[in-house]
Amino acid sequence: MNKNKFALTPPMGWNSYDYYDTTVNEAQVKANAEYMAANLKELGWQYVVIDIEWFAHGAGSQRDRYQYIPFNELEMDEYGRLLPDPERFPSSAGGAGFQPLADYIHSLGLKFGIHIMRGIPRIAAHRHMPVKGTETTANVIADPSSICGWNPDMYGVRNMPEGQAYYDSILELYAGWGVDFIKCDDICNTNIYPHNPYSARHEIEMLAKAIQNCGREVVLSLSPGPALIDKAWHYETYANMWRITDDFWDNWKLLKDMFRRCELWQNHVSEGCFPDCDMLPLGYLGKGFGQERTTNFSMDEARTMMTLWCIFGSPLMIGAELTKLDQATLSLLTNKRVLKMLTPECRPRQVCLDEKKAIWKAVNGKTGAKYAALFNLGEDEAELSLELQAADMEECTALTELWTGEKALVSGGNLKVRLEAHACAVYGNLN
Question: Which of 55, 329, 339, 397 registers the highest number of CB atoms within 10 A of its CB?
Fold first, then answer.
């Protein structure tokens, strides 16, 4: 399956989940899109993605008890295809769906994305709603033994022609709206089934085929993780992005563990195929969860996260409320020198990892630019060093620290730097 004609570099954008949870509305999406167009677009940030429950009536109204209201009323058309809740997305009224909002996002020079759950709405199955283009009803293609452990909205879809027809029908709808990006959940790792965590394999294939059939270039992102390394070839064949972790939040322990995860997946980054480290939980977060707050990451930890995501080659999705970004956070997201590493031409390799430090190197196979990143993973200030190869010694005077612009300190053939706990330095040969 040829999926590499678009999204050749890791997708960059904004996702509503970390700040809004299930509650984001049309005005809020537009405000974040306008901020992105004005402040981030020229650096490559382009996707505006509406996350989970955009189709659910009253989403978030019982957040003190449920994240996802059990067996809630969902907005659907006559074929069991989910539609935006018109109360939160008023331009969708009258069957317009997300097309008016997508048109507005596109008018800003950006791309539009949505989150979906694997499968078919349970309500559609219970009501025996027709599957578009078939003589079959939803209850026939729905598999009640295949469910999501944390969201009550959907049944899995059986591996049958009419099941493919359902996926084809929803992609026909999304393509008509102008969707450029789909984040499909409960599919990368069906973790309710520990003895069969890849039970949705056929639905990945059906969704990929539906995208191919719809006639529109749509990025396919698979969640949640952790992705299964022995299925790497399958993710690479059928998806553009796949999560290598469960939900990632602003917790140092989670960030430290990402070095191990990235090493596991470092050889699987290529054009159109990107192991995904999950969203960047920076700035203001958590309003939809009931407690708006600023990120728990220090500025040093935020730089460590951005550096690892970029040298590894992960997609970048901002979780913050963009309209509340402070200048320091904005500077993290707009550092051209750091973002320049974010290309599959820049092959990453972790050369050292232990409890106190990690070291990564990368070489851009097209430009010849070389990068080295040193991370202090310990709890105390420490000096880190990297022995330079003979071939690198001639170029060491051109190494620049990408965050500060300072020149590298090289002594006795070693690149040395003193770092605070949880801090990093990343050097690049910018010639």
Answer: 55
